[in-house]
Amino acid sequence: MPEIDFFHLTDAGCVREGNEDAIGCWPCEDGLVFAVADGLGVHNAGEVASALALEVLADQLQDESAGTPLAKRLRNGVQQANLRIYNKSTTVPELRHMGTTLTATSVVGDTLVTAHVGDCRLYLLRDGSLAQLTKDHTWVWEQVQYGILSVEEARKHPKRHMLSRALGQGLIVPIDTLTMKVRPGDVLIQCSDGIHGLLPDNEIMEVMSSSPQADAACRAFVHRARDRGGDDNLSVQIACVTSCSPSPPKSSWWRFGR
Ligand code: MN
Prior knowledge:
This protein has eight helices and eleven strands.
């Protein structure tokens, strides 16, 4: 069973009236799933979409038998959430065109799985260096990949919030999945664009080195983003892996489950 120091926080920021971000975390097998969603839509439709995404994901994780691999369960959860949001947005006039991003990460044993759509990010801080594990599904990220914009230009570009992928826009959504091993000392930082849009990598590292505990670090991220103007909703989830045991082989999982 992994031992994880986990905390998360969401804040409307300094400019927006409502908070269209949603965060959730649930126990899963002998580990943890945590997810962040950033809703889009007029009036409060974005709030409806991000809350619905987490609700459907949580239900799906509970329903599916523990025999189904986690990567598949997470993907199914995201796909179900997409469908529910799409159906609602096409049948309820006030919720027309609503959508949301969704990034969901599980840590079970020593294995991390992430299912990701949109521009929330998952970072890994390991041995003093920070890596962004997810790709942003945004127009500017594509321009950076093509070499048209630099990372710095993309950060300041007026179209930086324009998504190339989100839940609720069609019957099926393409989902990025990532599976990797974690080890003691790893820190996972999952956040909405309100945080990473204001705090570049060097500031994320600064915050983590001055506040290594998950709860203090979450508060420090929100504080710092608010100091920078907090022009968007701010959400951050931090999981510090303090110990983890290798995942048991598949056969013993089966024996255990029956
Ligand atoms: Mn946002």
